[in-house]
């Protein structure tokens, strides 16, 4: 018998039409959750994700919304709550990069990354906490009134030249997550982050698609392999389940040791 620790729980994963978000949505579905598969523009990407969740016996529904747009976020939650009645798990995954040398970075590049990666988490988490507080703990569902997971990055601690907007957004996610966790813990809402390293997805394709790029990237990963979306999916399932009930306000780095200063491995 497959163990489904999230049986009967209702999840929303933002940015779930590709990459880490798709992997997380499928993993939650396989763990028994019903999943809203949010996407911004790539509806085709949601099709295999929904098929995989349904094959695991869960319900799935694709909802379009730009997470940086307040009205679209509210409409997405209205639809989810209207149809499914509640939200138990929010995975704030939607994120993007718009890389540029700092002196050439446009305000549009700065704003886009901050709006999606950070403001999107604010808008989605605000509505989710309202719903979770309203309903409170349902002991037959979970020990917590709700679980919020923020997709951060190793770049919430590792500075990243050429990516100042992205690193600033992830540094922001760190204290967003911790401050929110502190604020809503009394209401039994758990808030944590996952800090992925290099996971093979479209966002970083140039970093792993050629043998030369891959060899260079592997120098930064002591564990010796690039991550896969399911590596993150497994952490998301654990952070969503009561197995992690006493974990609150933490970032779990899932990065093969990228945060371990690998350049010092030979003595520095
Ligand atoms: C970035 C990837 C990068 C990884 C490790 C992630 O947050 O989105 O592009 O490969 O960090 O540097």
In short:
The protein is an alpha/beta fold and 268 residues long. It contains 8 helices and 7 strands; from the N terminus they run βαβαβαβαβαβαααβ.
CATH first level: which class?
Alpha Beta
List low-pLDDT spans. none
Bound molecules: beta-D-glucopyranose
CATH superfamily: NAD(P)-binding Rossmann-like Domain
What's the domain count?
Answer: 1
Spatial order of the strands forming the largest sheet = 3-2-1-4-5-6-7
Distance between the termini: 49 Å
State Rg.
Answer: 18 Å
CATH topology: Rossmann fold
Number of strands: 7
Order of helices and strands: EHEHEHEHEHEHHHE
Return the average pLDDT rounded to an integer: 97
Percent range of helical residues: 40-55%
> Strand fraction band?
5-15%
**How many helices in DSSP terms?**
8
């Amino acid at each position: 018998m497959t163990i489904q620790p999230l049986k009967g729980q209702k999840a929303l994963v933002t940015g779930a039409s590709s990459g880490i978000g798709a992997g997380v949505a499928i993993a939650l579905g396989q763990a028994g959750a019903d999943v809203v598969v949010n996407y911004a523009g790539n509806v085709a990407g949601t099709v295999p994700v929904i098929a995989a969740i349904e094959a695991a016996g869960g319900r799935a529904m694709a909802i379009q919304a730009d997470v940086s747009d307040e009205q679209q976020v509210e409409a997405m939650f209205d639809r989810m709550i209207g149809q499914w009645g509640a939200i138990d798990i929010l995975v704030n995954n939607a994120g993007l990069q718009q890389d540029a040398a700092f002196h050439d970075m446009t305000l549009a590049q700065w704003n886009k990354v901050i709006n999606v990666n950070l403001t999107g988490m604010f808008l989605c988490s605000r509505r989710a906490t309202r719903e979770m507080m309203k309903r409170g703990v349902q002991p037959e569902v979970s020990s917590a009134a709700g679980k919020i997971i923020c997709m951060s990055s190793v770049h919430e601690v590792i500075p990243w030249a050429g990516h100042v907007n992205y690193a600033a957004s992830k540094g922001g996610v760190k204290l967003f997550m911790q401050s929110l966790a502190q604020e809503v813990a009394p209401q039994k809402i758990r808030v944590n982050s996952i800090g992925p390293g290099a996971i093979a997805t479209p966002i970083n394709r140039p970093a792993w698609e050629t043998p030369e790029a891959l060899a260079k990237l592997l120098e930064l990963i002591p564990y010796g392999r690039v991550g896969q979306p399911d590596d993150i999916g497994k952490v998301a399932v654990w952070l969503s389940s009561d197995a992690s009930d006493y974990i609150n306000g933490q970032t779990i780095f899932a990065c093969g040791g990228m945060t371990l200063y690998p350049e010092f491995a030979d003595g520095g």
